[in-house]
Amino acid sequence: MGTRFLSAIGLTVAVTAAAFHTGPQVDNSQYAPAIQRLVSSTPEWIAHDRLAVTLWKTERQFYASRKNLPVWFDGDQPSPRFGALLDALTHSADHGLDPAEYGVDGFQQVVGRPEENKRSYEIERIPEIDTRLTYAYLQYAADLLGWSGNPKAVETNWIRADNKADLAGQLAKAVSSNRVRETLEELAPAHPQYKGLQSALARERQNPTADLDQIRMNLERWRWMPRDLGDRYIFVNVPAYEMQVMEGDTPVLAMRVIVGDPIHQTPLFSDQMTSVVFSPQWNVPESIIRKEMVPKLVADPEYLERQEIQVVGTSGEVIDAGAIDWRDASAVAGLRFRQRPGPKNALGLVKFQFPNRFDIYMHDTPQDALFDREQRALSHGCIRLEDPLALARYLLRDNPEWTMKKITMAMYAGHERAVPLKKRLPVHIGYFTAWVNPDGSVTYTDDPYDLDTTQKEQRL
Prior knowledge:
The chain has about 450 residues and is of the alpha+beta class. The protein has helices at about 5-10, 30-40, 50-65, 80-90, 105-110, 125-145, 150-155, 165-175, 180-185, 190-205, 210-225, 285-300, 305, 330, 390-395, 405-410, 450-460; strands spanning about 15, 75, 75-80, 115-120, 230-235, 240-245, 250-260, 270-280, 280-285, 310, 320, 335-340, 350-355, 360-365, 375-380, 385, 415-430, 435, 440-445.
């Protein structure tokens, strides 16, 4: 909208003053009929995508609630709110956003230059200017809430948080309280990582080091996250191969993790951890059976026995693996594989469930040596933990029955036991390739799924 603003609005810009109107309240009812006509239609400067339609509907509701009176003008003069909004839109750059997307240059020309003391423009254009300013507010608010951008276009299994907000009510509050910029800033993430990236962005703009795009993309990813992560929560940063348990802003437990490989990427979403499962059995996913295990069995019929994996028929009965012709697709169809609990189990001695549509969970692993690798995108999507015992102790610490001895015994019991958590714990799986350290410096991580490149292409 920014570069088209002046030509589209048809202003005869002889605007020469900058002082905003601060005098007595004036009667703005003269503009109401024109504003009503505008918001009853859909101007050509409103896009046709889903977000634009939602924002325009919100704008209609907002003007209806104030009887279609203008927001940003008092009489024929820009009000102080006009200046506050212009200031807020200009500072959208502090969030890695582009002020031009909100028409800032055009609005600045409407206001004029501070050193001059006259203003003249076509009064009949005020309703359109006013509605454009309102739409710019709503666009910026939506961007700060993370409603814009399309994480699914970057990665199919990237689930954006549902950061709901009553933007019509938000704008009404901003206008009545004369806190336009402040109410907008309240919509942005308050997480220390977001604030730290904003500081890094300011430094980058002052002394460029070619990290600008990466910082901006990671700011956007934080806007896609839930605003409230929880008082206590588990946070997995996939490209850093790290899991942290957070209490407030403080990590109380951290460990290395193994995440999905580029073919079986770990989904990016938030959910709730519900239970700890000791001595888990592993129900082998059908895709692994078909693509990996059956081909091995053709050449090595004793593979399942060595891995302590049972073959289960369609009726739930255990079948003798040696009696199956693994080259016969019809004989294999419908069979399920189940690995018994124990040290050879692919899930190790404990798993942590947070039920989700992807059937992803965290678990132990018998392959501890893999944690020594620098790049650890190696799994089929689930998250393997370096120190699952420490996480089990933390999750069950409010349950006196589960002492260290009992936890250890349950892990080696050889039969599955699920222990529900007394209080569910939020789990957030994110993808941040720019991470702010306690001293304010930024670590730029590996990008195992090449999402930085994909997201950058989406922004262009």
